[in-house]
Amino acid sequence: MIILDSLNRHLLGAYGSEEFDTPHLDAFASQSIVFDRHHAGSLPCMPARHDLLVGALDFPWRPWGSIEIWEDAITRDLRRAGVTTMLVSDHPHLFEVGGENYHTDFTAWEYTRGHENDPWRTVEDPTWIGSPALPVARNPRAHFHYDTSRTWFRGETDFPGPSTMRTAAAWIRANAGRHSKSFLLVDEFDPHEPFDAPEPWASKYRDHQDDPWLIWPPYAVDALAKGVLSPAEARSLRAAYGAKLSMIDHWLGEVLRAIDESPDADRTAVVVCTDHGHYLGERGVWGKPAHPIHDPLGHIPLMIRWPGADPRRTRRLSTTVDIHATLCDVFGVQPTHRTHGRSLIPVIESDRPIREAVLSGYWGREVLLVTDDISYTRGSVGAGFPLSMWSNRWSTMPIHARPDIRLPLPDARARLDRMPGSDVPVIRQPFVEGDLLPFWAYGGLVDTHLLYDRRDDPDQLVNRSDRDRPSSVESEATELLRHELAGIEAPDDLMERLGLT
Length: 501
What we know:
Alkaline Phosphatase, subunit A, alpha/beta, eight-stranded mixed β-sheet, globular
């Protein structure tokens, strides 16, 4: 399984785009079952990996964190079943607070240093003269370790993405034919920001040579209208994303070649997926700011090359937890904790549907329901409360720009509760208006709902919601959302916050 972080479905040739070159992804798609209706579940990075490795939706209960004590990553079940598991990654969130223990149950793992805010170097290389890491503007939001680390790269293969893919290909070649059952996870952080690539990639899509060199996108709504970005800066950033996308596509080719040359090739399933997309000016939005989940962010690619299955496209609905359920099905393991996924094997083998709806969201914000016909985003009623966080690990994404800020510890308002399907006591911490909240909880929709017709309005331009006089379609969407949340035993305060009690 290969995760390419922030891989935009709508910018891939396999999904109809001609803007950037992705020849290896496109060729892989021609050999695979291409899922046209695959959607993110929990957002952003670490919640999505919780969905993937643990198989339980994360966003109804907490914003971002480690594997909890009432659950296990699939790697623990696989090791008990005699499956060799390997992680190759340059994803820094897996190795910091909030992601501490996702790697620990792999048989082995290798971490490529230097991406984004990985604390790899403390000073710039004194011999750096600007190549291959080209001089660029620093991140205007804050200092990231990457700005220092990038000066130590000596060639393209020193950049974290190419290095990770070479490591993965080397593992495949060294282990080919040596394990009866194995699972390799390549968690590649590219094309996530910073959108940094050496030449010749860096200039590949720069049509205006006088544009500034930028690699750090802002997280902003109406960025151009508000002057956060100039048109030249916006062009530069979009071209930089394309450069990194094409570069990592090139190195993906080396991993795929290693698989194809392996004696295990004809009995190896290959999954290429992502956690979420990344706004690059669509709808005036950049990054992953406090903004509802529209298709550029939440409608994501999934391609599966499956032994014995003919290549084709499918429009069956699926989401990230379904990949976990598929892995369990393939290796014959059964999680002991409550999960929410449904195996994709019925879709792969006979194109049978496995679900009628997908749930998606960030903790503490609006919740998205997607069906074949509609996208329905339901915002909070009132001020966005009640709200609670459920965790016994009590870690979340650090705010690197503000080391003086940390998530407050549970206080006297906390009580012990139970996660669905578990007898393990869990700390349930309520929050009220004015409390310091985890970073991703801010900016959710309040007293506003969004209803889009996916068939007649694929660009999601016409909001058909009327909160005061809901149509029969919106009433049915509300009931289906209530049904889907009740089916996972979502917290009572989430139901109340959305006005679904």
